[in-house]
Amino acid sequence: MPILYLRKLTGKRRSPHANRHLAGYLCFVAGAINAGGFLAVQQYTSHMSGVVSAMADNLALGSFALALDGVGALLSFLGGAACSAVLVNWGRRERLHSEYALPLALEAGLLLCFGLIGGNLGQHQWLFVPATVMLLCFIMGLQNAMITKLSNAEIRTTHLTGMVTDIGIELGKLCYWNAAAPARTPSRTQARPLPRVLANRRKLRLLVVLVTLFFAGGVAGALGFKHLGFSATLPLAALLLALIAVPLTDDLRSRWRTGSLPRLAARMRQRVQAGALRRRR
User: Fold this and answer.
1) Helix axes 16-41 and 3-10, enclosed angle (nearest 10)
2) Separate counts of helices (H) and strands (E) for the chain
3) What is the rounded CA–CA span in Å between residue 266 and residue 235?
4) Which of residues 244 and 44 earns the better pLDDT score?
5) 200 and 170 in contact (C-beta within 8 Å)?
6) Less packed terminus of the chain by CB within 10 Å, N or C?
7) How far is the C-alpha of 182 from the C-alpha of 180, rounded, in Å?
8) Each residue of 62-85: pLDDT tens digit?
């Protein structure tokens, strides 16, 4: 990928074109995580409406342990969204080029760790399933909040209910027959003629592409988990790291030139040395 393209894709200067492209990548990743996660723990983790409905069902049936698992999943999604907002706002206060890349960096790190150690945790099923559900819900909340904040709440990437609804609305407007109004005698009290009903074809194309990419990601994630196991998350982490590499590198270079990184490294060394001295005493 060209450097300029990647800088625009996840940098702080946004454009509708960059937002659409980034949403496509993230829809693919979300679909892969959601489908692969289902094969791992038999539960989808990207949409909270199903989680809340399952909580209500389990509570009514007396399955309190499963209801508590749902509470954990809901709080994890909520925590991921809150964490994303904190990272974006902190990056904005620090005037970082990577203010929107920071949540994706955390998401990539979590996927990387999950892919590397997930197979070893499978032996502890009592801990593995709830922890995996909470981790994947946290990741979904993290990603969805980032793209929501980036696009001013115009785009979502982790669930399709809103997108499919918008597709239906645009299709309804596309099929609407704008018949000519019958001729009437004009009068001062007569209302102005209503505007023609027209579909937003660009929005319709974008939504169809995003839903298709989510589906393609789901197929890729399911096949990847089937053949590779937990290592299937490693390519997803690599893709996210590739998307955010340029703005993160820009920040590291600018901080190094201004001396921020050397001062931070010196402070960290001083703290480590002070801690070592205290332990010796």
Assistant:
1) 80
2) 10, 0
3) 35
4) 244
5) yes
6) C
7) 6
8) 989 889 989 999 999 999 999 999
Write phi, then psi, for 122 (nearest 5 degrees).
Answer: -60, -20
**Residue 187's pLDDT band (boundaries 50, 70, 90)?**
low
The domains of the chain are located at 3-161+210-280
CA distance 105 to 87: 10
Q: Are 197 and 173 in contact (CB under 8 A)?
A: yes
DSSP, residue by residue, 185-199: ---TTSPPPPPP---
Contact (Cβ atoms closer than 8 angstroms) between residue 24 and residue 206? no
pLDDT exceeds cutoff 60 at 252? yes
> Could you give the C-alpha distances from 66 to 33, 55, 70, 135, in angstroms and in order?
22, 7, 6, 17
Q: Is the pLDDT of residue 248 over 80?
A: yes
Structure tokens at 93: 């206060």
Average pLDDT over residues 170-197: 72
Lookup: tokens for 230: 């937990």
Which residue is listed with tokens 């937003």?
Answer: 200
How far apart, in whole angstroms, are the C-alpha atoms of residue 137 and residue 156?
15
Backbone φ/ψ region at 2: left (φ over 0), alpha (ψ -120 to 50), beta: beta
Region 212-216: what's the mean pLDDT? 96
Tokens, residue 269: 């060394």
- Cα–Cα dist 86/3, whole Å: 27
Amino acid at 240: L
pLDDT of 223 strictly over 80: yes
What is the per-residue pLDDT for 120?
67
